[in-house]
Write a structure and sequence with these properties.
This protein is α/β, with parallel strands linked by helices. Among the domains are: 38 residues, no CATH class; 276 residues, 3-Layer(aba) Sandwich (Rossmann fold), CATH 3.40.50. 38% of the residues lie in helices and 16% in strands. Strands 1, 2, 3, 4, 5, 6, 7 and 8 form an 8-stranded mixed β-sheet that branches. Strands 9, 10, 11, 12 and 13 form a 5-stranded antiparallel β-sheet that branches. Bound molecules: S-adenosylmethionine. The site of S-adenosylmethionine has 19 residues, from helix 9 and helix 10.
Length: 480
């Protein structure tokens, strides 16, 4: 007995449909073979002539490789559970009050301190509109104040800030793993680990990790970090300590050193320099610095980057975000205005329930803004040596430092280019299907592989570091 499906045969047209039946029929061997043949024809995809088929333009492999976005980040369940338990054991009202204090402190330290125009003595513009603006600026101005992480602040940090710093760190580590496929760190050191944020992110990205060190001045933060880690699996090789300590000669160094959202907490630029130096000394291969996506966070990163590049010229290169090792144009160019235009990126994070409660918010998503740099040992020329391979070629592709403007028939992108300057590129439809499609799909933070066929415009000229400035005997400053 054989039952034939109407639906199946209808797909292949009229002639076959005339055989279709819902009734059971009995067939002999010959009929059965003929029917099988018919069925195989029916199930075969009939090729559409190329003249009729719509050509599908897909992103180029280069553009796919240069993509930085990873979608909304969710925190690992054991981490969410651990923080939720911590909150349960404490006074939730107090946690919210402390979190609000933290947010205010972060806001107050986000802008580069500048002299505010004193509108009362008329030193700023006398027009009424700028008078109003200046009044507003004064009203918005907050005296910078930083907080020390005691027991209350540490819990408030885990309950109200950690998801955002976790997401940013996650994006940066994911980018490293994507860009340098053979980088499989076995050991990590996280300086200013707080509740162990970067250690959690690193465990998600790098599966070969075996040894973890978290350093933090705050005993209370370390207690939370240890407790949260115990929620996952008690790692044999996990150490939490308050001080970095000196590099032990001939001892193996951690492959990956991370310091996230911490250099901005160091009270002076001299201390920032000294810590960044020590972190570089500790790094066996890669050093990652992340800070807030504010003008001040960006400046901290750009200065730290320049400091390492100046000190270790031939033994260091920038993996990301910059496609060059020149001074950052957004801080060191004569045209730079880092309080108005600075390099930073954004990562979306899924707010865990505890964060929504801490913030009294109904929205379950937020965007984490961050600035970062990834420095690796070895010279840049070695890293860029083979240009026919995507990872190597990507070292020189321009990076979108703002969301692109997707206009009718063209896409405008502000990029940091390999020349060490900020350029405006325009990719018109007439440049070709693939570059145009790649441009329309491009997003803030991506590396873009196609040069523009139009002339690019320099928005911010090359940076000049202090080391490049030479003052001659007449006191004239020259750039080397
Ligand atoms: C804003 S939290 C960042 C925590 C974590 N890295 C994150 O991304 O969520 C800064 C941490 O740096 C620590 N810190 C500040 N100065 C430090 C120092 N000199 N040595 C070690 N840790 C320090 C603070 O105690 C605090 O836990």
């Amino acid at each position: 007995m054989f039952s034939l499906s109407k639906h199946c045969l209808r797909r292949s047209g009229q002639w076959i449909r005339s055989y279709s039946t819902e009734k059971a029929v009995f067939l002999d061997q010959k009929q059965l073979e003929a029917l099988e043949e018919l069925q195989s024809i029916a199930m075969t995809e009939i090729p559409v002539p190329s003249s009729v088929a719509e050509p599908v333009v897909r992103s180029s492999p280069e553009a796919a490789f240069g993509r930085k976005r990873i979608g909304a980040v969710s925190l690992p369940r054991p981490l969410i559970q651990g923080i939720a338990e911590l909150i349960e054991e404490n006074d939730k009202r107090l946690i919210r009050t402390d979190a609000l204090r933290l947010y205010e402190s972060l806001r107050s330290t986000s802008r580069i301190p500048t002299h505010l125009p004193d509108y009362d003595n008329g030193s700023s513009s006398s027009s009424s509109s700028s008078h109003g603006k200046s009044k507003k600026r004064q009203a918005a101005y907050q005296e910078p104040h930083t907080l020390a992480y005691g027991p209350r602040e540490s819990i408030a940090y885990a309950a109200g800030v950690l998801p955002s710093t976790y997401a940013a760190t996650m994006n940066v580590l994911a980018e490293i793993s994507h860009r340098i496929a053979d980088f499989a760190p076995k050991s990590i050191l996280d300086f200013g680990t707080g509740p162990g944020t970067a250690l959690w992110a690193a465990q998600e990205v790098f599966s070969d990790l075996q040894s973890y060190v978290g350093v933090d001045l705050s005993e209370d933060m370390l207690n939370i970090a240890e407790r949260l880690q115990a929620n996952l699996s008690p790692y044999a090789n996990m150490e939490f300590k308050r001080y970095l300590g000196a590099v032990v000669p001939n001892a193996p160094k951690p492959d990956l050193v991370v310091s996230a959202f911490t250099i901005g907490d160091l009270p002076s630029q001299a201390l920032q320099r000294s810590i960044v130096d020590q972190l570089w000394e500790h790094a066996g291969d890669i050093l990652v610095l992340v800070d807030r996506g504010t003008p001040i966070g960006f400046s901290n990163i750009a200065r730290a980057r320049q400091w390492i590049l100046d000190q270790h010229k031939d033994d260091v290169h920038v993996v990301a975000p910059c496609p060059h090792d020149r001074p950052c144009p957004l801080l060191y160019s004569p045209d730079a205005r880092p309080d108005a235009f600075w390099c930073h990126f954004s990562q979306r994070v899924q707010r865990p329930p505890f964060l929504m409660k801490t913030k009294h918010s109904k929205f379950n998503l937020e965007d984490s803004k961050y600035a970062y740099v990834v420095l690796r040992r070895g010279s840049r020329s070695k890293a860029e040596s083979s240009h026919d391979d995507l990872p190597e070629a990507a070292y020189t592709w321009p990076r979108l430092i703002q969301p692109p403007l997707k206009k009718h028939g063209h896409v405008v992108m502000d990029v940091c280019a390999k020349e060490g300057e900020i350029q405006r590129m325009v990719i018109p439809k007439s440049q070709g299907k693939i570059p145009y499609r790649d441009a329309r799909k491009a997003a803030w933070g991506d590396l873009f592989p196609h040069p523009s066929k139009n002339k690019v415009v320099t928005r911010v000229s090359k940076g000049v570091s202090d080391n490049d400035r030479v003052v001659n005997s007449d006191g004239v400053v020259k750039v080397e």
